Structures are given as C-alpha cells and as structure tokens.
Amino acid sequence: MNILLKTDALTLARGGRCLIDGLELTIRTGERWAVIGPNGCGKSTLLKSLAGLLPSAGGHIHLPPGTPLHGLPPRERARRIGLVFQHGNPGLHNSTLELVMSGHHPHRQHWWDTPEELAAARHALGQVGLAEQAAQNAQTLSGGELRRAEIARLLVQNPALAMLDEPFNHLDIAQQVAMTRLLGAHFTRDGRALLMVVHDINMASGIASHCLLLHGDGRWRAGRAREILNRETLSELFDYPLQACLGRNGTVWMPSWE
User: Fold this and answer.
1) CATH code of the domain occupying 3-92+158-255
2) Is the pTM value of this prediction over 0.85?
3) Hey, how many other C-beta atoms are within 10 angstroms of the C-beta on 10?
4) How far apart, in whole angstroms, are the C-alpha atoms of residue 76 and residue 195?
5) CA-based, 20 to 30 A from 133: which of 68, 80, 121, 143?
6) CA-to-CA distance for 90 and 141, rounded, in angstroms?
7) Is residue 115 reached through a cis peptide bond, with omega within 30 degrees of 0 on the bond before it?
8) Spans of all domains in the chain
C-alpha cells in the first residue's frame, strides 16, 4: 500500500490550548480512518489543517513522494485531498446539479461544461439518491439532501484522500448505511483512502480499518481499529465508563448506567 498523507510531529492549538501534540499519522491507500473524540477535542481543526486550510502550531504535513502540503498549488492540492465540512453550505450555486458540477473544478483545463462532466455529475446524484433534485435550487435542499449533494460533489472531485467531517449529520439510518457503503466502496479502491470524523463509536468500529483517538489535551492514539477500540481506551477517551455488549453483528458499545 502506498502512503497518501503523512504528518511529522504535527501540533495543533486553538485559543492558546494545545489540542494535538506531535501527531505522527500515516494514511495509506485502501485504509478507512475514523477520527473519534469528545466535543472540542480538535477533530474539525485537524481535518481543516490536513486540507491546508488552517495553519499548524508545529510539525509538517507531507503528501508523498515527500511534497510538503503547503508547497502544492491549490488546484493540485484539491486533486489529492477532498473535504466535506461539518456544516453544509450550498454556496452560490443555482441548482443542485451545479453544486455537484463544482467538483470538476480542480481537474478542468477549460471554462465550459462538457457532456462527460455533466454525465458524471448526474451519475453521482443518482448514486446518492438525488437524481430528481438535479434542477432544484440548492438553497432549498433539506439538511440531509444538502449533505448527500456534497458527497456527490466529492465523488465527482474524486481525490486520492477523501475527508469528511461528521458526514452523516441530518441523515436517517437507511441513508447513513447507504452513504457509508458508497463512500467505502469508492474511496478504498484504485489507490484512494477515506478519513471521517464520526461520533458514533459503533459506526466507527463497523466501518473503520484504523482509528485516531483525540483527547483534546494534546494526547492522541492511532492504530488499527480492532487493537485500540476497547473498554479501557474508550472509557478514558470520553471520561465515562463504557461497556461492550454482544450484538447480532458483533460488539456494541454502551454507556455504563451503574
């Protein structure tokens, strides 16, 4: 597996508080990463920093072969890294189709829409179940529809590393499952990888091959999900006792009510 992104002693701070201290993170092709931690621990800050949108307090971010993240032009950076923000924004796009079409911008060498680009955008809308909303004003989309439209735009952008900040906000259970399968199928093949901020530990344990745990006080832990998602680490992470219950499809994490 090839390395897509690597951090070297990355340190992130906000408001004078150290959130992440000396992060050593390596993301390789085919991996599915879940970022987990309590509110305010720096999850969104981390994704924005990895996308080059926020400065770090120290350390480096590299996109192999050895290229510093900030040494890349924005268009090249957008070809390698895509980010869906925590809070949706339809922007100035008139229609849902136009919103999705904007995913082509990092790859374009022209100023017009080609038939191939339109077909790809319509296909992506169909994948997320929004084919009938293609002509709808993007400003009128519901929260869940906007979230799925942004995922469709990410599919069109097709970066090597797809990063999503709480991508299942506003989605019902069926849509969460469908989008999880779609993202996993698309971004863990053909030299790609997936990094998602999630709040649901059970979802993380079900979809992630690797996890990054952020405590919010500088401490962090990264590794294979099956090795670091356990009662001790999760109870310490959330400062609350958790217990593992046996469900139909494996372990289910529940708070201890005692």
Assistant:
1) 3.40.50.300
2) yes
3) 22
4) 19
5) 80
6) 8
7) no
8) 3-92+158-255
